[in-house]
Amino acid sequence: MRVNIIIFTNRSLFYMNYIASIGSYFIMIKEVFRKPTKWSIMKKLILKEIDELVFGSLGIIIFISFFIGGVVTIQTALNLTNPLIPESLIGFAARQSVILEFAPTFTSIIMAGKVGSYITSSIGTMRVTEQIDALEVMGVNSLNYLVFPKIIALMLYPFAIAIAMYVGIFGGWIAGVFGGFTTSASFIEGIQLDFIPYHVTYAFIKSIIFAFVIATIPSFHGYFMKGGALEVGKASTTAFVWTSVAIIILNYILTQLLLG
Amino acid sequence: MIEVNNLHKSFGEAHILKGVTTDFEKGKTNLIIGQSGSGKTVFLKCLLGLFTPDEGYISYNGNIYNDLSPDEKRNLRQEMGMVFQGSALFDSLTVEGNVMFPLEMFTKQSKSEMQDRVNTVLKRVNLIDAHHKYPSEISGGMQKRVAIARAIVMNPKYLFCDEPNSGLDPKTAILIDNLILEITQEYDITTIINTHDMNSVMEIGEKILFLKNGHKEWEGTNKEIFKTDNKAVTDFVYSSELFKKVRQMYIEERN
Ligand SMILES: Nc1ncnc2c1ncn2[C@@H]1O[C@H](COP(=O)(O)OP(=O)(O)OP(=O)(O)O)[C@@H](O)[C@H]1O
Ligand SMILES: [Mg+2]
Q1: DSSP string covering A51-74, please?
Q2: Strand B190-195 with B158-162, pairing
Q3: Pairing mode, if any, of strands B190-195 and B215-220?
């Protein structure tokens, strides 16, 4: 509640004082982990969020990964005109780009839109209709109640990314083989070539951090919004922009730290 | 007993509450009246601790709210029930889920004890066949009644109602007023109600606080409000023809 008041009296958010917003964001994160909600209730909330945020996203994740994997393969194949380069490089390139970037980062940007806007609008609507005030009046730590289950649910996000990797490479194989760009044998040789397990670890570390960002930045924009239904829509858009920016920057930093 | 001392609250340039001092007694229905925009909701939210006053203080049974630790504040809040102006029901829960929410959150009761309690309070607000409906599936008046049920389910010591009977038909409005009066007396609650409704003022106004532009313009009982010569009060209370006639009759009777 204290955070709530600090930010409401503080017009920083209003004037887009970024530094102050970043400060408020971290104060919010701290508050999320204080005064936990009763476990029997929290358990139900977490399961509901897993269903909504993770299972509910699998369809789109699979769809996108499949086609992106296919496109990456076709493009690599089309650019490999030199007969001296082995054909297995197509599978190799598909595997590397899917595991390193397309599955973790590209999917996360999509999730920032899908899951993020759901989070901002659902929390924002609760703010606008005073449901958050109602929670606070009862003595519930509303940030813990609303944001914590989303963070925990999204810790399962790497499983979705693992599926995205698998489906992405599978999409590449389909496109490569059935498009007549490569043979199944050389594609499979390519995806086994110089495989470094650490790359998968790197991708999972990235996706865990992106998951945290996807859960918290949209929550922040929803929780501290002011106004009515129109502002809920605006807050969702703003949240998407900032979540994407954060993902892109963190992607750069993490790649430098983990692979550089 | 709630005491309010020199309460000020501004939002940016707008000075909404300009030094309100008053107190609200236990076991009484205290009404706050005033025109739309006069600061009633802001006042109530200051009492609840949802807004921090810029100046002045509020004390609950002698404990000054702002001096309490965060945990003490939360404990105090568990003794409060609030009916928001827009009901503020949780969209994701059914009627029953909404009313059960505080019980699940803060008590160790068994499922069947909670169920009994929920049935009792829902019956008290005259809602018997909407247990499994969602807030979006019931009417505004029904939402209000669910909100009242949720506010009283924990037997609060302090009950705050922001226009509990706006949007209700006159019959249900009176029913709600009487219900609030009954539970206030039965459980010796300190009840504070924001209202526009002159019926409520006449029926349950054991204490009335009239706010005008963020000032305390007048306070007294529903007996006194008939007699007052304060122009702002009479203009507000007797703005309808019906009440003008009532007042006229009252004055004639008195002479
Ligand atoms: N969170 C807020 N930020 C800025 N201004 C606010 C806020 N809440 C209320 N106000 C302003 O305070 C004034 C009083 O509002 P309030 O909601 O207390 O009126 P009210 O007496 O409850 O009116 P009504 O009877 O229509 O509910 C209004 O001018 C409103 O614009
Ligand atoms: Mg109001």
Answers
A1: IIIIIHHHHHHHHHHHHHHHHHHH
A2: parallel
A3: unpaired
Instruction: Determine the Cα–Cα distance for residues A212 and A229; give it in Å rounded to an integer.
Output: 26
Cα(A82)–Cα(B202) distance, integer angstroms: 94
Please, what's the b/e burial string for A200-221 (b: 16 or more CB within 10 A of its CB; e: otherwise)? bebbbebbbbbbbbbbbbbbbb
Radius of gyration of chain B (CA): 19
A137 touches chain B (CB under 8 A): yes
Instruction: Kindly calculate the radius of gyration of chain A based on its CA atoms and give it in whole angstroms.
Output: 21
Domains annotated for chain B, with CATH where assigned, are 1-79+156-221 (3.40.50.300), 93-154 (no CATH)
Is the CB of residue A64 less than 8 Å from the CB of residue A107? yes
- Partners of residue B78 in chain A, C-beta under 8 Å: 138-139
Lowest mean pLDDT among A19-23, A112-116, A151-155, B236-240: B236-240
**pLDDT, position A2:** 46
Chain A residues in contact with B51 by the CB 8 A cut-off are 5, 8
* Phi/psi-derived region of residue B163, left when phi > 0, alpha when psi is between -120 and 50, beta in every other case: left
Distance (angstroms) between ligand 1 centre and the Cα of A155 equals 41
CA B239 to mean position of chain CA atoms: 23
> Which residues contact ligand 1 via a Cβ below 6 A?
B 11, 14, 16, 34, 36-42, 85
Q: In chain A, where are the structural domains located?
A: 33-259
CA dihedral A239, A244, A250, A255 (to 10 degrees): 160
The structure tokens listed for B116 are: 């009994």
pLDDT at residue A208 is higher than 90 = yes
Q: Which of B129, B118, B165 is nearest to B144 (CA)?
A: B165
Q: What is the ipTM of this complex?
A: 0.90
Tell the burial category of A224 from Cβ atoms under 10 Å away from its Cβ (0-12, 13-18, 19+): buried
| Backbone phi, psi, residue B215, to 5° | -105, 155
List, for residues B67-87, the tens digit of each pLDDT value. Answer: 998 888 888 988 999 999 999
Q: Looking at ligand 1, which residue's alpha carbon is closest to its atom 18?
A: B39
Compute the distance between CA of residue B183 and CA of residue B187 in angstroms, rounded to an integer.
6
- At residue A12 the predicted structure's pLDDT band, cuts being 50, 70 and 90, is very low
Kindly state the helix (H) or strand (E) to which residue B92 belongs, with its residue range. none
Show Cβ contacts of residue A260 under 8 Å, excluding neighbours closer than 6 positions: none
Tell me the residue length of chain B: 255
Distance CA A208, CA A201 (A): 11
Least confident interval from A162-171, B210-219, B244-253? B244-253
If we measure between CA atoms, which residue out of A99, A230, A225 comes closest to residue A166?
A99
**Out of B12, B73, B88, closest to residue A133 by CB:** B88
CB contact under 8 Å between B84 and A37, yes or no, is no
